[in-house]
Design goal:
Blueprint (H helix, E strand, L loop, with lengths): L9 E5 L15 H10 L4 E5 L8 H14 L5 E4 L1 H7 L6 H7 L2 E3 L8 H13 L1 H4 L8 E3 L12 H13 L15 H7 L2 H7 L8 E6 L2 E12 L2 E10 L7 E6 L11 E5 L4 E6 L4 E6 L4 E8 L19 E2 L3
Parallel strand pairs: 1-2, 2-3, 3-4, 4-5, 12-14
Antiparallel strand pairs: 6-7, 7-8, 8-13, 9-12, 10-11, 10-13
């Protein structure tokens, strides 16, 4: 029934005697539960870590992963392994985690609030030197679900979560009633250009490259690559709550975009193509409080600046006015 709707079938379990809600866990039933999930046509297995000793997870999580593989059915394996060990003061073995899990949690469960989303953004930014190197195709850091379309986020905040999750190369798991979601939130979740950034084949997780007085800039290398120059997705985030949009002005070179042939720049929410800009071009974005502007800058193979209208000075910025 689930598959007939074009959806995937996910299930929750726990490497412990019980789940966090008190239902039976997989301990003592690893092979049987894996076989049952496969027979049910499960596509995605989330294995939590309540009622388990964190020190036992180094054996238990890989073993359940092996049991899933032995069924012969491809199932995405989501682990809570590292977060429980981090909370217990243990150093997770990310080499093993990467080998055995498709995605894993590093931090708190998300709640339906902007404060919760902010705490996750801060954690991933503050610990990026440890977190980022572990991500890659087939093995991802998981900042938890999207709460877009529920009750806790404004429209601007919803756009911010989606954009930052894409920069983080995060799994995009909706947590919303699809029967009642409002059109403007549905449009965020269906933004194909931002999904394309999230699912970029390079699988490189982005980083926070600037943070000052409530303004943050996040950047992620993506395809296409020309010579030594990556393309980039860049998100400008306004963490201020002073009630007015903030202007952010910066050259492409200051963002680390130094391809002498330039970059074709596009606003992924406003769906505006600004053509090919040089590294010296200063861009200026207007970012609403708790909002985001996300740009895609595709590296160009040859010199082709052609986008700025002739009535505008070449080194003038393009202005993005958010509604």
């Amino acid at each position: 029934m689930v598959h007939s709707k074009g959806l995937k079938f996910g299930i929750y379990e726990d490497y412990g005697n019980f789940t966090c809600a008190g239902y039976p866990g997989v301990v003592g039933h690893l092979a049987g539960d894996a076989s049952t999930f496969a027979s049910w046509g499960v596509d995605y297995v989330k294995l939590d870590g309540c009622y388990a000793l964190p020190v036992d997870m180094d054996h238990g999580y890989p073993e359940f992963g092996r049991q899933l593989n032995l069924t012969g059915r491809q199932m995405v394996y989501s682990c809570s392994w590292p977060v429980y060990q981090i909370y217990a003061g243990l150093q997770p073995n990310f080499t093993s985690i990467i080998e055995h899990c498709n995605l894993w949690r590093n931090f708190d469960d998300i709640q339906d609030s902007w404060a919760s989303v902010e705490s996750i953004i801060d954690y991933y930014g503050n610990h990026q030197d440890v977190i980022v190197p572990n991500a890659g195709p087939g093995h991802w850091n998981d900042p938890d679900m999207l709460i877009i379309g529920n009750f806790g986020l404004s429209y601007e905040q919803s756009k911010t979560q989606f954009a930052i999750w894409a920069i983080l190369a995060a799994p995009l798991l909706m947590s919303v009633d699809l029967r009642t979601i409002r059109p403007e939130y549905k449009a965020i979740l269906q933004n194909r250009k931002i999904i394309e950034v999230d699912q970029d084949p390079l699988g490189i997780q982005g980083r926070r490259i600037y943070k000052h007085r409530g303004i943050e800039i996040w950047s992620r290398p993506i395809l296409p690559i020309h010579g030594q120059y990556y393309s980039y997705a860049v998100a400008f985030v306004n963490r201020r709550t002073d009630g007015t949009p903030s202007d952010v002005a910066v050259t492409l070179r200051e963002l680390g975009l130094s391809n002498p042939s330039g970059y074709r720049v596009e606003d992924l929410y406003e769906d505006v193509d600004y053509g090919v800009l040089s590294p010296q071009t200063k861009i200026k974005v207007k970012v609403n409080p708790s909002g985001v502007v996300i740009l895609r800058a595709d590296a160009q193979p040859s010199f082709a600046y052609n986008a700025i209208p002739t009535r505008t000075p070449y080194n003038e910025v393009f202005r993005l006015s958010k509604k």
